[in-house]
Amino acid sequence: MTTYTATVTVRLKRGVLDPEADTTRRALERLGFELQGLRSADRFEVDLEADSAAAARDRADEMAERLLANPTVHDYEVAVAER
Amino acid sequence: MVVAVVQFGGSNCDRDAVRALSHVGVDAERVWHADGLPDDVDGVVLPGGFSYGDYLRAGAMAARAPVMDEVRAAAADGVPVLGVCNGAQVGCEAGLVPGAFTTNAGARFRCERVHVRVERADTPFTRAYEEGDVLDLPIAHGEGRFEAGDETYSRLVADDRVIFRYCDADGTVGAANPNGSRGAVAGLLGDEPSVAVLMPHPERATLPRLSSGDGAGVLRAFAP
User: Fold this and answer.
1) 3-class secondary-structure state, position B12
2) Which residue in B70, B93, B192, B203 is the catalytic one?
3) Is there a contact between A35 and B65 (Cβ–Cβ < 8 Å)?
4) Exposed (0-12), middle (13-18) or buried (19+): which is B12, by Cβ within 10 Å?
5) What DSSP state is assigned to residue A13?
6) Residues of A with Cβ-Cβ distance to B64 under 8 angstroms
7) According to CATH, what is the number of the domain A2-82?
8) CB atoms closer than 10 angstroms to residue A46
9) Cβ–Cβ < 8 Å for B119, B131
10) B38-67, pLDDT tens digit by residue?
11) pLDDT score for B174
12) Would you identify the CATH topology of the domain B2-222?
């Protein structure tokens, strides 16, 4: 068994309104920053033991499917690295 | 005849729901989620609140509690299931109802009285009303914007599953939309017709001298 960290990034699908990001962007603009856009995302770093990177990825994928992301509004991606 | 009001950690409208149900003549009791549904359950209410602090997404944690498998099975048996506010979010997260309730378009928590139009009166949850009735109900939510993909939303509309839409006092749909919901959807039926969810709080508009009284009809879905 090897220890991995699976990083699951969950973000809103393109086209889904992101009021939190809009509010943050406006706050940055109030501070005087110039920016063209801002998107927010949630990142989960999951430490796990698995036989292979592929097995670790599969498990993290399932975590995203079953809890971390909501398919109605989210896309997600998984990256796996050995710890 | 007993209606289970399922209490999760952070539910806070469970007592209100029990009192309001009692007021319309329904025998209701609070049930701690980990204790499971009573064997003789005749109805389920998923109450409002902030289950598990709204961590991850509103309703996400409660939706994965084991009791929700029992709720799903009860719904499949035709037992009426009503999700209110956080309970509506739980219902969507649990897959009882398509779509999602997510952050209000204005990014603000909205706590106020709104109007909704009854879109269908031929469901258990709306049979006390006439189609086109305008109800005055309270809302209190930060994540109430109904979202559904194009395909899902078209199917919902084609199947006539929207039961309440936000409107103005005259009943004009879309003239008011406190959270930016797609299609001004305030409440809809689940995949099982015995399931309905809505963001406004009928239990806060049922007891005399509390709000409009307009919510009592929704709770009468559970009346014998």
Assistant:
1) coil
2) B203
3) no
4) middle
5) P
6) 66-67
7) 3.30.1280.10
8) 17
9) yes
10) 999 999 999 999 999 999 999 999 999 999
11) 84
12) Rossmann fold (3.40.50)
